[in-house]
Amino acid sequence: MRKGQLQAMEPIIVVIMIVLIAVVALTYFVRLSKSEATIMASTMDSKDALAILQRASTLPELSCALSETQGTACIDLYKAWFMEILMNDPTQDMLKIRYQPIFGNTNVSVEIIKIEDGSSPFNPIQIYNGLAPGVDYTVTRTYFTIHEATTDGRAFAIMHIARESR
Amino acid sequence: MRRGQTEMIGLVFIVVALLLGLLVYVKFSVIVKNPAGDLVDRARDVQQTSSFLVALKETTVPNCGGAPMERLARACIENDRSFCITGRPCDMLQELFENLVKVTLVKQGIKFNLSLEGTEVMVVSTDVNGDLDCVSADRSVDISSAPVGEVVLSGGSGKGYIRLSMCR
């Protein structure tokens, strides 16, 4: 290559270099933002799980009797069972619309743990199913107690909240 | 200095800047990837451990007149043998802890350490070789979350702590 040709190429090389540096910097910042967004989304999922539990435990349709609540999250077992029956009743479709602002686009189920022998005596109780069928979802768990009025006992329980993957 | 030499120095400067940029990118892309995952897990762990301890303290002890687990933990710390029918509250608590974690934390594949401070009550997850994999003395593990559940002792004489650590 002649000296003159090299000199003519110089501005082009400089521009290419600058563009490359800009692309590298941009890619890095995009990755950083994505990473921050992932952290934020996960933190929000955790907070959201607690918020759903708090909302559910204050609904008259699910809450424990006032004397049993003691200021912490508690759901009544028999109310939860009845809620599951209602949610699975095709004639009660309006209920999903009614509870959508409370539970959002989620499936909420409750698993009861029998601490005496470390078992789950019943299938999980599905108290709300607002997640569109066939979508990819992630599950967040939070723990609380479920009150059984007939024995006046509080059993350890897990609330599984399935929501569409972000 | 000739003009050609100046241009060569300029070109070398750009190449060095590009290499530095690449180096910084590679370094940060590796660093950024892992803490994101770690922080995501940590946020989840803190939420889970806190709610686990609150629920655990309120759960009713079977066949003990509706007493909560917090009352059993207090009996264990104070060695109150008059509590419930077994007369051995710490053994009972150990058994209930084991039953509970079997269907919760173990089932979810979480490394954990659940204990009642000041007593021998402790349940720790084990690895594939059967070794304990979440003990504070083991510096190879990272305890990502360790909230405590307070147990108020009789007559307000102090507090005991149920501790749940999750490890990565």
Helix content of chain B: 40-55%
Question: Which strand-content bin applies to the residues of chain B?
Answer: 15-25%
User: Could you list the spans of chain A in which at least 5 consecutive residues all have pLDDT below 50?
Assistant: none
Q: In terms of structural class, how would the helical and strand content of chain B be classed?
A: alpha+beta
Estimated helix fraction of chain A: 40-55%
- The strand count of chain A comes to 5
Oligomer: heterodimer
Features:
heterodimer, A: alpha+beta, five-stranded mixed beta sheet, 49% helix, B: 168 residues, alpha+beta, five-stranded antiparallel beta sheet, 48% helix
How would you characterize the overall build of this protein?
The complex is a heterodimer of chains A (166) and B (168). In chain A, strands 1-4-5-2-3 form a 5-stranded mixed β-sheet. Chain A has 4 helices and 5 strands; from the N terminus they run H-H-E-H-H-E-E-E-E. Chain A has one domain (30-164). The longest helix of chain A has 56 residues, at 3-58. Chain A starts with a helix and ends with a strand. Chain A has 166 residues and is of the alpha+beta class. Chain B has 168 residues and is α+β, with helices and mostly antiparallel strands. Chain B has one domain. The radius of gyration of chain B is 26 Å and the shape is rod-shaped. The mean pLDDT of chain B is 79. At the A-B interface, helix 1, strand 4 and strand 5 of A face helix 1 and helix 3 of B.
